[in-house]
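Project standup — Tuesday

K.O.: blocked on the structure for the chain from last sprint. Re-posting the sequence here as requested.
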Amino acid sequence: MSTPAPTSTAPAFEGDLDATAVRDALAFNDGEHDQALATLRDVLLDTSLSRTPEQALAAARIVLAAHARQVEALIEAHYRARRTEWGVTRSSRGLLTGYDGARKIVAAYAAGLDHDQALAEQRTP
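H.V.: unblocked you, prediction finished:
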């Protein structure tokens, strides 16, 4: 059994890993249990697209922002469930305030990533 000789030519890419491709992958994985994780899998496994460091950073921003929004939604759901179960009492107020604060921090992180990506896309011709 012989091993095929390695080729010296670089693989031909079908396109670039740009923000649109990552957003399309997010939209495609919308019904998945963990949309960001499924999109990350797809982006990492797709070898048909060329990647530059800037494109990889853009993909990371977009996927991490989507993941942060998922975490924000989980915190919000937990907050609402606890508030519905316990109501707002002197005992629960601090905990509920902490949940809301954590949600706001995660939301601000996602918004910051979105903002950084928007600025990066404005600089790209």
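K.O.: great, moving the ticket to review. The chain is about 70% helix and 5% strand. The radius of gyration is 20 Å.
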